[in-house]
Design goal:
homodimer, 495 residues, 21 helices, binds potassium ion
Chain lengths: 495, 495
């Protein structure tokens, strides 16, 4: 049953992302691009962009300044409803209404006939007991405990929604204020003919959802000396993804301190019974916090030691460099905005970035506790057949990389510096991890220079063949749904 | 206690490999190379070669034809005593003599005083029971069962030794016969001034230990149309490594059928109590067999479809191509001999090769059985502290690759086609997996041609800086001992 629920949930999410992507594609297609007289994006590229926004990957095969203001608004909506926090919120509301329905059933039984109510309760209790035994607490019915659970989930819904709205509204107002105050950043947007409000909303929604699209062609490179803007966006990156569980737990605790004490207590103590993916047990939340900053520090140190005097950071003072590098290293998980051209930084850093992009968001150093045992028990109960055909995540990644090497084999030979394995790996892992980093394509790197080549501001995948792009679309969707296969490949024994 | 035993065993093996490597280095240094008047290998390169032979990696930083006949004999001995089957045999003999000692103690007690013997037995039984409970059966003493265990291990020692000698003697005689019969292969060796017998022994020992060194500079490329020789070596590769557990089990069963029925039964049924790493349970042995051929077929298909008409295989007829490709794909696990220049084959294949090289030898598709539970129990009992500081194998590999990118950062920029990430990854993973594949270094790939550059017949790592070579030495030793860390990184939760 648990397996069925998982498969079901997987299918629902898959359909959700595909239909939203398709819907987004239709809207993008109907609306005219800014360059409608000179250049019209191909259908595949538009679909790619739509999938990329919906899966919050920000891989691009079209320059961003091609899109008109209305298209940017469509992209904003796609990012808003594609983000992990939003989708999880929908799931939570769904669960809440399910609980509500069951509760109504029982209370209507109780109203009609006290004895039926009694038997109903007994039945419910029995079922609850069975559920406990089988490790599935999702449909438990025990009324008093369950009413509390219902109330707690309702409370959690409000907290998440409030968090979602508050952080982004704060972000938009801060960015707007910054643009109003700092003329250099405002001028950049004016020269590009971008609407200031659209930019504020787009960039904050994109950053909070950890998508990483920006309306500018050069992404954040044009703002690399606007340290204030970077400082405004940094919390959005963390609050919207890697630190969300820790902050959510903190909010629940904080609100419980002053209001809703009972619900908050239930949420904090029976975290695993709620079954909300983003509400983690106490010690996990703390270790997550430590791990996130540990990874940032490791990247920061390596980046500083290798690139402090590089060309990409020239023209910045020490303070701007520090903020810029901090911003860059935070973006590997998983916003994917960039203040430097990634193709110019050293391979050592890129390899570390690949590792960071690969790691799932809530990767955490977590010394084993006793509840590890319980965790294992539930894992053992997965479906046998399904388990046998699932590979591990890395195997899938290797397969995707091999497939891309096959579709691009001609270019791998003719243009080895652009189509190097590192660049392909960065692109595929970046799509898998919903990051959006890319090394791009540069005509200067061609070993047999082609005079028709023009440098473009889109990702490396923009130069791939159609088959390659389709594979990358699959990788983005696969990566967005990776949490369903985190324990794949268990039938393989490595000895 | 189990942890201590593991740490102990790890230290013993580490000391063994380091001292053998050092001893080998001294011998190689004392003996004169063939080119003693024109070229003398550096100390670091000699040590590298010695480590490479001892850890059966066959990474090279010196051309093989530099070594004189006596140095080749030293290398043969290093490969012989560095191979996995030989070292495991030593461990088994050690375990046998331990059991023997205990048995002697008990029987001397019995001779002196029957009652002491009785109490000794009870004590022994009690201890045995405790051992069973704690999952450590290594020092059990129960006399009747234990006598059988001792006899079985003694029998297993003979089987392994017999297997070790028989397969290699057969191989040497077959290669010698082939060289005597086929003049083309004989002429190659004569022109190079290599001793025929040395070549036979060297190549068979190297192939059986899955080392992959050959006395010729070009490795097997010069023999790519000698399909007979390839066919002789193919079984040596499989019997000496990936298929060893399956064949060993078959031998035990086969010998039990006609001799030593009791010991054989004990070995087949109580496989896990023997604690010999290479004797796997029945279903594991069968799945291993299937997996090994599955991997070979997958590689064979990809290689044929991408490279059938490539330059590296030109001049061969279909039969020779088929045998050649079969030989090549078998060498990824883990002999590392080559009939083509790996730098010329497509990246898709190289990526698959990297995956294959990374996988440990007894990787097997293994649907979960009930004894999985037991396996988990013993895993849970590992030391907490030690576990916390161990990363997973892949993290270590990533760290090593990043370190190499740092030491070679200058060349990564100046010579991007030779020092590409793919080539570095192939080199590091090949060293880690004790394979020995290399893409080599080619002056033609330099983007800024250097007129002093001369193409050499050694591995890519031969062109690395000293620091890079030292890292690779560490990687080879680490990879040779990887079985001690197969479940590292368990304190990290990927969610
Ligand atoms: K992203
Ligand atoms: K090898």
């Amino acid at each position: 049953r648990l397996v069925l629920a998982r498969v079901n949930s997987f299918c629902i999410q898959l359909c959700y992302f595909l239909s939203v992507s398709f819907f987004g594609f239709v809207l993008l297609k109907v609306l005219k691009p800014r360059t409608h007289d000179s250049f019209k994006p191909r259908n595949l590229d538009l679909f790619f962009t739509s999938v990329s926004a919906t899966t919050v990957s920000s891989m691009s095969t079209v320059e961003m300044e091609v899109f008109s203001n209305s298209q940017l608004i469509v992209l904003t909506i796609l990012m808003l409803i594609g983000g992990e926090i939003f989708t999880s919120m929908v799931g939570l509301h769904f669960k809440k209404s399910q609980l509500k329905k069951m509760e109504n059933k029982i209370s209507s039984l109780a109203n009609n006939d006290p004895s039926t109510y009694q038997s109903g309760l007994v039945m419910a209790e029995k079922q609850d007991f069975e559920n406990l035994e089988s490790g599935n607490q999702e449909t438990s019915l025990d009324s008093s405990v369950d009413f509390l659970k219902y109330k707690s989930i309702k409370f959690l819904c409000f907290v998440v929604l409030g968090y979602f709205i508050a952080v982004q509204v704060l972000g938009v107002s801060l960015v707007s204020t910054y643009l109003a105050l700092v003329s250099s950043s405002r001028n950049v947007l004016k020269n590009k003919g971008l609407n200031l409000l659209t930019f504020s909303i787009f960039s904050v929604v994109s950053t909070f959802a950890n998508c990483g699209f920006l309306p500018t062609n050069e992404n954040m490179v044009v703002f690399k000396n606007n340290s204030g803007l970077l400082l405004i966006l940094i919390p959005q990156i963390l609050l919207g993804n890697t630190l969300f569980p820790s902050c959510l737990r903190f909010c629940v605790w904080f609100l419980g301190k002053f209001f809703k004490r009972v619900e908050s207590n239930y949420l904090l103590k029976k975290t695993s019974e709620i079954g909300y993916f983003h509400l983690l047990p106490s010690h996990h939340s703390s270790y997550l916090f430590v791990t996130v900053f540990g990874f940032i520090i490791a990247q920061f140190i390596l980046f500083c030691s290798m690139e402090w005097n590089s060309a990409g950071l020239s023209g910045l003072n020490s303070y701007q460099k520090t903020i810029g590098i901090l911003f860059q290293t935070m973006n590997t998980r998983y916003a994917g905005e960039s203040i430097v051209d990634l193709s110019t930084i050293s391979s050592a850093i890129l390899v570390l970035f690949v590792v960071m992009m690969y790691l799932p968001p809530y990767t955490s150093f977590l010394p084993i506790k006793d509840d590890e045992e319980i965790y294992k028990k539930t894992r053992n109960r997965r479906g046998k057949l399904l388990e046998n055909i699932l590979f591990s995540q890395l195997s899938y990644l290797a397969i995707f990389i091999i497939l891309v090497c096959i579709t691009e084999r001609q270019k791998l030979k003719e243009d080895p510096l652009n189509f190097s394995l590192l660049n392909i790996v960065v692109e595929v892992v970046s799509a898998y991890g919903s990051v959006g980093f890319t090394t791009g394509y540069s005509c200067d790197r061609q070993t047999q220079p082609n005079s028709n080549c023009v440098n473009k501001f889109y990702g490396f995948s923009g130069k791939w063949s159609d088959e390659g792009k389709i594979i990358l679309i699959v990788v983005m969707v696969f990566g967005r749904l990776k949490k369903f296969n985190m324990d794949g490949g268990r039938t393989w024994k490595l000895l």
